[in-house]
Amino acid sequence: MSDPADKAAALALMPVSRETQARLEAYVDLLLQWQAVTNLVAPSTLPTLWTRHIADSLQLLDLAPNAKTFADLGSGGGFPGIVLACVLADRPGARIDLVERNAKKAAFLREALRITGGAGEVHHRDIVDYVDSRTAPVDCVTARALAPLHQLLGFAEPLVRNGAKALFLKGQDVESELTEATKYWTIKSALHPSRTGGDGCVVEVTGIVRRNIAATGGAR
């Protein structure tokens, strides 16, 4: 069971509709059931699941208030993808693609969408395959705890070139990751301090240009 005080703190920080709250509660219950047999989140973060994971994911929506189509790369245990899907269910025409190559995690994501009624679709495939086959533009591409920034930029570049905004949740090493990324990419970006506190931030990227084709080979 999640901590009621932690849940209250998260929802005070990032308020949602009653319907969305019910979806998120169903998602958290399912995650805790699956966590017993499949490692979806770090066990040490379970006592602060709502503030550490749910609220952290919800903050992305304020940075893309008009976005309707999302792509979440490496969705894993559903952060931020399932959280966003729970909110997007209240927005007519909104939808998120959840891209996950791990079969067990993809199965969990499908079940999470089923029991929450979240507005999303699971794509059980490699990120590069998904991005390369995506012909329709997306409004926003997201990722959390997936890869170093220079690799994320490589994954997202085709989507951003096609009009998407990228929002990447990053921790305290973001400055060093940005420094490394500039070896490979010229980017138009902004840093937003995490609304959940700590040293985290959201890297908002609206432009990505390849600097050195040979050097970025490992990025994708």
Question: What's this model, at a glance?
Answer:
This protein is 40% helix and 20% strand. With 220 residues, it is an alpha/beta fold.
Structural account:
This protein has 220 residues and is of the alpha/beta class. It has 8 helices and 7 strands, in the order H-H-H-E-H-E-H-E-H-E-H-E-H-E-E. Helix 7 links the parallel strand 4 and strand 5. Helix 6 packs parallel to helix 7. It is globular.
Largest sheet: 7 strands, mixed
Class per helix and strand makeup: alpha/beta
The helix content is 40-55%
* SSE string, helices as H and strands as E: HHHEHEHEHEHEHEE
Estimate what percentage of residues fall within beta strands: 15-25%
Overall residue-averaged pLDDT value = 94
Tell me the number of helical segments per DSSP (H or I, 4 or more residues long): 8
The low-confidence runs, each spanning 5 or more residues with pLDDT under 50, are none
Strand arrangement within the widest β-sheet reads 3-2-1-4-5-7-6
> What's the shape?
globular
Radius of gyration (Å): 17 Å
What's the total number of strands?
7
Query: What is the distance, rounded to the nearest whole angstrom, between the alpha carbons of the first and last residues?
Result: 39 Å
Helix and strand topology:
Blueprint: H1 4-13, H2 18-35, H3 49-58, E1 69-73, H4 81-88, E2 95-99, H5 103-116, E3 120-123, H6 127-133, E4 140-144, H7 149-161, E5 165-170, H8 174-181, E6 185-193, E7 201-210
Parallel strand pairs: 1-2, 1-4, 2-3, 4-5
Antiparallel strand pairs: 5-7, 6-7
